[in-house]
Amino acid sequence: MKQISFAQAEHQNKKKVTRRERFLAQMEALVPWQRLIDALSPSYFPNAAGKRGRPPIGLERMLRIYFLQQWYALADEALEDAIYDSQAMRDFVGIDLAIESVPDATTLLRFRHLLEKHALTQRIFEEINAHLAEKGLFMREGTIVADVTMVRHLVREDGKRIDGDTGCFGMGKYLVEEKQSSETRCFAPVRRSAIKKMEDSWKKTLMLAFEKTKTNIYAKVEHPFHVIKNLFGYRKVCYKGLTKKNQAQLFSLFALANLVLAGRCQKHVHGGSVS
């Protein structure tokens, strides 16, 4: 058994368990670590053995640090400082400051570039979704975690059918043009202000019922976006105009969001509270 430091012993004896500790403990149990390591190992410095110089940091440790960055929306330097400051983060990563230091920001930057170069974040996304599907926690005809693989198709325009929110991608103009074109059909929710202006009649009642059905369907897609925007703090792209970097990060964020939703469903099934 590994001997703990005085700082770790003091931290373990505190009475309160923080929200960060609860969240990281939940992710520790939900993330399929060995599956991810097996999938990414062939692309993680496969020829490093026997070479001179400093050996690469273990893949699992770098994955843990990378996931912390996505969960808490931290820059490379800020993440390095946060790990030094937080005992909960150090325990999650497996770092004991008495014998080792935290990987610096440059190391994390190079790891992210490696993930982008070999499209490994997409592999992470696929492996996590496959793991959840095997556990029965992935949306397949009525199960419980949302599949956000086809995010780019949530709002689309093919000349005949338009899906999305009335506030996105100029949807408002299509609502107007729909009255003039018999070919284009708009499947965006109608604004409530437009419904309120209608006279009380069977048409308004039917419209309200129809819109309620549509919004119930759209609401199910909003759950992973709520996790990413409000819990992970990802509200705007960090690298404007750099599609490859943004796409790589989004694969990671949606994979981790699926894990959060799976954890909530498990709490609900076992009678726990859902935060």
TrEMBL record:
Residues 14-113 form the Transposase InsH N-terminal domain. It comes from the Bacteria. InterPro entries: Transposase_InsH_N. This is IS5/IS1182 family transposase. It comes from Vreelandella aquamarina.
